Structures are given as structure tokens and as C-alpha cells.
Amino acid sequence: MTPKKVVFITGATSGFGRATARRFAQAGWALVLTGRREDRLQALKEELHDHVPVHCAVLDVRDAQAVATVVDNLPPDFGQVTALINNAGLALAPEGAPDVALEDWHTMIDTNVTGLVNVTHALLPRLIKTGAGATIVNIGSIAGQWPYPGSHVYGATKAFVQQFSYNLRCDLVSTGVRVTDLAPGMAETEFTLVRTKGNQAASDQLYRGADPLTAEDIAGQIHYIVTLPPHICINRLEVMPQRQAWSPFLVHRETA
Ligand code: NDP
Ligand code: 8X3
């Protein structure tokens, strides 16, 4: 029997990551599911393991040693990774920069930049061994390209994701490994609940009437990117809900 292709997903306990696990399970891939919340990983494993092989690992991507240990200890059937979905991430502190706790800036950098780099570094040898058709999908954001008030360090971390993805492309061009910066716009997940530290009303208000993207929409885009013929690489894919668009430049006027 041909071994199943393996997808390694960070942040599989919620939102895009969980929907991506379900999408790849539908397509018959073996799943490596990681995240900090063990109960959610176990629930997802229960849901999917009758259909495809599932390996779960509790993992905080900020911890480079823990990342290396999880990767070093992948069971043999999950060892040859074809796709890495660098999805774990978060925004904090929607208020303006002067009012943000330094700790929140550090948490975003540690997760969205250091965490993504930790996982990429640990899995690169396995992806290169897989070669043609292997794919790294880094979840960036429209915030990495377009500034807006309250984005401060979050948007800056996603700008890092974009440039790191492009630079990786250059270094991996002879290996067959593809790299994509997938940059979603507004999508209804637990993202705003996390950003507002648990304010469900604020989250509901943001998405109300906006017909936002869903986690399943993004999972579908990830699956599309990863299953393209090996000679095609999407460098960056920016996806917004139809009802979201850019706004005019911000101008602060003195009052008379
Ligand atoms: P969710 O809050 O629903 O999911 C975030 C996931 O990241 C969770 O599974 C969480 O798992 C994981 N995570 C957070 N911190 C860590 C950590 N230190 N170590 C490991 N896992 C971690 O949000 P989304 O699904 O929306 O977000 C996924 C990605 O998409 C993020 O990178 C986000 O920046 C990006 N994005 C989101 C958009 C949106 O509008 N929703 C738009 C553009 C980009 P756990 O807490 O169990 O560790
Ligand atoms: C999340 C999308 O518009 O909140 O990355 O920055 S947005």
C-alpha cells in the first residue's frame, strides 16, 4: 500500500488549523496535529482517527527545544512530512500602541515569528528529503501588507512571515520544496476572542453582517496550494471576504 502523505499542522485546536485537519482528513492524508490544548487535540483525534492516521503532540511553538523534541520523535509512519502548515498564531491588544502592554508585543513576536521559525527549522530536513511536491504554507495576513490602527506588532509579525516566505523560496529553489505566504483577511474563528482577551460581544459585533471568511474557506485554500502540481508554487495568496476592502488613508486634523 502506498504510504499516506503527511501534513504537519500547528495550531490545530481551533479555527484554520482545525478546519485544515478536517480538510486533509477528507483527502486521506495522515495528520500530525499540534497545539497547546490537549483536550481539543484529543477530541479532534477521536473525530478523525477512524478515517486517517492521526498523531497528536501538545506543543507550544515558542519553545524551540519542545519543537525539536516533537519533530525528532515523530513515529515512523508520520516521519516523511509532505506539507507543513505554519498556522499557530495570534493577535493581542487591539488598542493603539501607546496603550499596549509590552508583554503582549512579546507574545505576538514569540508566537508568530519565533514559533514559526522554530517549527520551520526543525522540519526543513524532512521536507527537503520529501523533495518535489513538498510545501510549506505560512499563514500570514492582510495585516502584513496593509497598515491599520491597532495592528502595530501583529501586522509587523505578519510582514516578517511574508518576507521570510519569499527568502525561504530562494534558498529552497533547488530542493523542490515550495513556500507560500497565505494572507487571509477577516475570518470568523476564535481570533478576535483571543485578541480581545475573551470579549465575545466584541467578536460577534466585528463579524456581524460582514459575511466573513470561514475557517473552512481557508482550509480549502491551503489544500489547493498543497495539492497543485509540484512545478507550480503560489508565492503569496491574499484572500478577503468580498465585503472587505481597503479604506482611505488616515488623516488626523487639528480642530479649530
Ligand atoms: P484561532 O484563535 O481560532 O486559532 C489559533 C490557533 O493557534 C489555535 O489552535 C492555538 O492553539 C494556536 N496557538 C496560539 N498560540 C500558540 C502557541 N504558542 N503554540 C502553539 N499553538 C498556538 O485563530 P485563527 O484560526 O484565525 O488563526 C490562525 C492563524 O491565522 C494565526 O496565525 C492568525 O494570525 C492567522 N490569521 C487569522 C485571521 C482571521 O481573521 N481569523 C486572518 C489572517 C490571519 P492553542 O491555544 O491550543 O495552543
Ligand atoms: C487577521 C486579519 O484584518 O484582523 O490577520 O488583521 S485582520
Textual characterization of the structure:
Helix content is 42%, strand content 16%. With 256 residues, the chain is an alpha/beta fold. The chain has a single domain, classed as Rossmann fold. The strands form 2 sheets. It has a 7-stranded parallel β-sheet, with helices on both faces. β4, α4 and β5 form a beta-alpha-beta unit. The N and C termini lie far apart (77 Å). The mean pLDDT is 98. 2-hydroxyethylsulfonic acid binds next to loops.
| Main β sheet profile | 7 strands, parallel
How is the quaternary structure best described? single chain
CATH superfamily: NAD(P)-binding Rossmann-like Domain
N- to C-terminal distance? 77 Å
Overall number of domains: 1
Q: Helix/strand-derived class? A: alpha/beta
List segments where confidence is low: pLDDT < 50 over at least 5 consecutive residues.
none
Entry summary:
The protein has helices at residues 15-26, 38-48, 64-72, 102-130, 152-172, 191-195, 200-207, 215-226, and strands at 6-9, 30-35, 54-58, 81-86, 135-139, 178-184, 187-188, 213-214, 236-239. By secondary structure, the protein is of the alpha/beta class.
